[in-house]
Design brief:
Layout: H1 10-22, E1 29-32, H2 42-57, E2 61-66, H3 76-88, E3 96-98, H4 103-115, E4 119-122, H5 126-133, H6 150-162, E5 171-174, E6 189-193, E7 207-209, H7 211-221, E8 226-230, H8 237-246, E9 254-258, H9 270-278, H10 293-299, H11 303-313, H12 324-338, E10 340-342, E11 344-345, E12 348-353, E13 359-365, E14 375-381, E15 383-387, E16 407-410, E17 415-423, E18 429-436, E19 454-455, E20 458-459, E21 464-471, E22 494-501, H13 503-506, E23 513-516, E24 520-524, E25 533-539, H14 544-549
Helix pairs in contact: 2-11, 7-8, 11-12
Length: 550
């Protein structure tokens, strides 16, 4: 596996400067704050690797905090899925907290702003608020309710809390600057009325804080030193700082932004991923075509490969797009080291060795590069299955697999020579015939005659039925075009084949991953039954990304 060089990035440089400035006793604290309204995806792996990476490198702390201030979309099921994904990646949080843990204190801080004359209750409708806010080129104008007294605002806010007013009729706004060039600072809404049961607090609250108000308070209450977030929050940083400066929180966290991870042919939005699930385009959040951590795990990606990928992509301040092939390269590197080798025939055609009688076991290595993993015994019989693509009746000159009159080696077994074949009514090859050279058994003394092709195979007598799910990109290759994701669904993102595998694969545990000789890396899926094993193709053997780098 490629070594990751020791290097720092702009976030680490800032952390190190802060450690030096504060001196002994200073503990770095980060947090990862997902909203529990969907499953985490690979973009979150970058954020996780940054937040938890800072904790690990500087012996600090990192909290996992559920940003659950929008009760209409959040659910405990998503909380459990997020925790499971973070643990699977190998990260250990110091505290598991919830935005809803801070509803009471956030409500008190809102009253503090009102008493300081820095917040007011506004009766404008959502449409009017938008109109009054102005545009990027024109300043906003003050709400007619902006000059209410602190006493009047406090009374109205408490009545909002008591449920006296209908949803959407009033909001609490910060009083900042309606002429600010940053629209986020034009008296932003910090509380709204919303009657919706919360999965943790039920109907206790009918007002809920907005993210931009709640988040800095939560960071400060937890002693977060470095609030690390993606680049779209850069324009929100002045508001983050304004909140921290104007309420009596116990600490002063600082926000730093980094560029999000973007990958070709990959949807990187929970909102769109949720649509795929709801519209039945995929089987669920853990469909192996999904870029969710659950989907990648089910497909067969490993935590090490995902974290290695993020580390090698680095941490940037500007937007960039990473080739999906590089992610596959990282997965392939990891599995090449770990995965035992096995034989399976995905698109089978029968092979009959006409001059062979009886049966025997032959030895096949468990890993072609690791002799210490030993060998296994595989049954060899008169009738076998080989891949349909490994035989051609009329091959081109550089076809080095099986064809009439040509020789190949069967992996771990004998050299055979094709003597003929049968076809069915549609003209498809239904059976291939060959003769074997009894003096050519692999490992036999003197059996060193060379042939150009080596094929994998399974015994027709011992083979176990299996289903092979061949996954490809969910989106087609039209990146950068102005198309809705629904227009880019790849119709060949899943191809299912019924074939055969050696018995060792049928006996494997769900979740075990193997290299199928000459075919790619596969993981045994949860849909497997005692009657039929199901395998997901993780990634093929061909590394087009690595080849392009040469």
């Amino acid at each position: 596996m490629t070594e990751i060089p020791e290097s720092s990035n702009f976030i680490e440089e800032k952390v190190e400067a802060d450690i030096a400035a504060h001196g002994p006793g200073y503990t770095v604290c980060t947090r990862f704050p997902p909203e529990p309204n969907g499953y985490l995806h690979i973009g979150h792996v970058r954020a996780l690797s940054i937040d938890f990476g800072i904790k690990e490198k500087y012996n600090g702390r990192c909290n996992l905090r559920m940003d659950d201030t929008n009760p209409a979309k959040e659910d405990m099921h998503y909380v459990q899925a997020i925790c499971r994904d973070v643990e699977w990646l190998g990260y250990k949080w110091d505290r598991l907290t919830f935005g809803s843990d801070y509803y009471d204190v956030t409500y008190q801080f809102a009253q503090e702003l009102i008493q300081k004359g820095l917040a007011y209750v506004c009766d404008l409708s959502p449409e009017q608020i938008k109109e009054y806010r102005g545009t990027l080129t024109t300043p906003g104008k003050n709400s007619p309710y902006r000059d209410r007294t602190p006493e009047e605002n406090l009374d109205l806010f408490r009545r909002m809390r008591a449920g006296e007013f209908p949803d959407g009729s009033r909001v609490l706004r910060a009083k900042i600057d309606m002429a600010s060039p940053n629209i986020n600072m034009r008296d932003p809404i910090i509380y709204r009325i919303l009657r919706a049961d919360h999965y943790r607090t039920g109907d206790k609250w009918c007002i809920y804080p907005m993210y931009d108000f709640a988040h800095p308070i939560q960071d400060a209450m937890e002693g977060v030193t470095h609030s690390l977030c993606s680049l779209e929050f850069e324009d929100h940083r002045p508001l983050y700082n304004w909140v921290i400066q104007n309420v009596s929180v116990p600490s002063r966290p600082e926000q730093t932004e980094f560029a999000r991870l973007n990958i070709t042919r990959t949807i990187m939005s929970k909102r769109y991923l949720k649509k795929l699930v709801e519209q039945g385009v995929v089987s669920g959040w853990d469909d192996p075509r999904m870029p969710t951590i659950a989907g990648l795990r089910r497909r067969g990606y490993t935590p090490e490969a995902l974290k290695n990928f993020c580390a090698r992509c680095g941490v940037a301040k500007v937007f960039s797009v990473i080739e999906a092939g590089f992610l596959e390269h990282c997965v392939r590197e990891d599995l090449n080291e770990k995965a035992l080798r096995r034989m399976a025939v995905i698109d089978p055609v029968r092979l009959v060795i006409t001059n062979y009688t009886g049966e025997q076991t032959v030895s096949v290595e468990n890993h072609n590069a690791k002799e210490e993993l030993g060998k296994r015994e595989v049954l060899f019989t008169k009738e076998l299955y080989i891949e349909r693509e490994d035989f051609m009746a009329d091959p081109p000159a550089k076809f080095f697999r099986l064809a009439p009159g040509r020789e190949v080696r069967l992996k771990g077994a004998y050299i055979i020579k094709c003597t003929g074949y049968d076809t069915d009514e549609q003209g498809n090859v239904s059976c291939v015939y060959a003769e074997y050279d009894p003096q050519s058994l692999s490992g036999m003394e003197g059996a060193n005659r060379k042939v150009k092709g080596t094929l994998h195979w399974v015994s027709a007598r011992a083979a176990v039925p299996a289903e092979f799910r061949l996954y490809d990109y969910l989106l087609d290759d039209r990146d950068g075009q102005d198309l809705d994701f629904s227009q880019r669904i790849n119709p060949d993102s899943l191809v299912v084949r019924q074939g055969w595998c050696e018995p060792a694969l049928a006996e494997a545990e769900v979740g075990d991953t193997f290299q199928f000789v000459r075919m790619g890396y596969f993981r045994k899926d949860e849909d497997s039954t005692p009657e039929k094993a199901v395998f997901n193709r993780v990634v093929g053997l061909k590394d087009s990304w690595a080849k392009a780098q040469r």
